[in-house]
Design a protein that fits this description.
- It contains four helices and two strands.
- By secondary structure, it is an all-alpha fold.
Length: about 190
Amino acid sequence: MTRTWLMPVLLIAAIAAFYTWSYRAGKTAAVNACARTTAETLAAHEQQLRMDYEQQLEAADQQVRLLRLERAELLARQQILNRRIDDVTQQYRPRPDASPEPLPACHFTTGFVSVYNQSISAALALSEADTAPGVDGETSTAPLTAADELALSALQQSDILHHITAYGARCQSIEAQLVSLIDYLNHYNERTP
């Protein structure tokens, strides 16, 4: 009689052991499958991110190459214009069939120089004082009088043309940078959901 109760206990213990082993084996298999699926998903996502990153780099590199090309063209254009300045500021032809003659003097007042400099520089405060740098590079804080504004400056036509070719090249370079950035961002935004 002592053996009759032993058999059910052993059977229950065997079933419990099998259940525990099966549970652990199933859980381990499920955890491993989940980990494998997660790793595969992460690997696929990482690969997609790498491809996106490489495409962004390629697009950015292309924009940089185009921008450098455009800057080189702007610099070449500026150099050509600078070489022409003396030709167009020293002589003129009074009539189409006449020989070139020395160009009459063109005078600019200090008031003209002040207004010109204040017009192109946001850093210069707009006031009655002459805050525009003069020929010596120094600024004056003294208020301009009507006589000061009408005094002749040392500025010549060639000075204005040299400045405007450099300023124009700078503006065109900034515009090219902005257009390039906008193109890059538009390309990037088209790809991003």
